[in-house]
């Protein structure tokens, strides 16, 4: 049905707003934006996103600090994801409205403050509140990510996104390794008992060092960012209220955005099921501590290296093919992880199966993310931060829901429940993909003829 036949007054007002915003978009402007190195953007994503994953291998230690059971302390991980989702919704749209270098520097400064607050949290309630705040400001990652496709020709969009996404996923995975081993710093204090008396929090709470050292690392990066990052002026001039209203319009008028958001949410929910419960699995089944749990992030980093390849495949074969491969890999990984834990295998073989399962799991998650973001960034180039806001809000809402559901599943059914939950989520993603958009490539932003949704709005 054509737009002109719509008789709803709110719909006409909504389309009028979108038309006014769309007419301000200038993807073919002759002015050339300053170029930020893709690898610097990847580093920025890695540092920003890592802060919300430090807590996952540390949950057991945090529970000991506050004397609470696993079922309560696991809400720390979910609270961080909730905060991140709020940041995506309310902060990331600013990337379309403000000078992005200054916005990034302010948000990284806020990350430093939030990390220090988490490190000194006196109670579990304060830790959860600080984790929400940390998650909100760590959404700076997704102010950075939409800059990548602006740096390259449209035909290389997948490659650029893959390069920066490799940094992001390495941050997600290596954060756990960093946290797991840095938390062991108090083990060194036994060699100087007079300087470090038993019972002091800096001796018993190794997890606090993770956030303190991370804050110092973010401060060093902030100095680098100020020296290397060029100024990146906004591509259009909008009021914040207009930009926020346009989020719903983008969601409503772009079916590919809705499809990608739902698939991304289901995939990341299944991904979060594993990482939220890994520390408890290793502790209860194998008696292994947070250092080993964190080391699985280093293992998973091998899967992250597929990101540039995924981007090139998306450019060459199309995003739908990449998504099909991603969902197949994710399903296989959880079948392998479930069978490996359930089977009566020697300890070394159990760990080997977990290692292979983690690599395949991270490969699948990375393929899905690169494919989805290559799709959405081709829709409306001048609204990439807002497209990313809609997509990533759904994506991390999925992560938060996955973490919370995995907490319940672990409490009632242990690893069997977690694995069944993850496979159910992956199956739902597969069904949505099977009945989804059949176009081989994303809509071409260089041609309105290939972009029926936008075409209808502009002719309203």
Please sum up the structure shown.
The protein is mostly helical. It contains 19 helices and no strands.
Can you give a write-up of this model?
- The chain has 460 residues and is an all-alpha fold.
- It has one domain (34-238, 255-458): MFS general substrate transporter like domains (Growth Hormone, Chain: A, Up-down Bundle).
- It is 72% helix and 0% strand.
- It is built from 19 helices and no strands.
- The two termini are 12 Å apart.
- The model is unreliable at 1-33 and 440-460 (pLDDT under 50).
> Per DSSP, what share of the residues sits in E-state strands of 2 or more residues?
under 5%
At the first level of CATH, what is the class?
Answer: Mainly Alpha
Pick out the low-confidence regions.
1-33, 440-460
Please state the average pLDDT score.
82
> What characteristic shape results from the CA principal axes?
globular
Q: Helical element count? A: 19
CATH topology: Growth Hormone, Chain: A
SSE topology string = HHHHHHHHHHHHHHHHHHH
What is the CATH architecture descriptor? Answer: Up-down Bundle
Query: How many domains, as an integer?
Result: 1
Largest sheet: number of strands, sense, barrel closure: none
Number of strands: 0
What layout of secondary structure does this protein have?
Elements: H1 9-23, H2 38-50, H3 59-66, H4 70-73, H5 75-90, H6 100-119, H7 124-137, H8 141-144, H9 157-182, H10 201-204, H11 207-228, H12 240-253, H13 255-286, H14 290-304, H15 307-317, H16 319-342, H17 347-376, H18 384-434, H19 452-458
Helix pairs in contact: 1-12, 2-9, 5-7, 5-18, 6-7, 6-11, 9-11, 9-14, 9-15, 9-17, 12-18, 13-14, 13-17, 13-18, 14-17, 15-16, 15-17, 16-17, 16-18
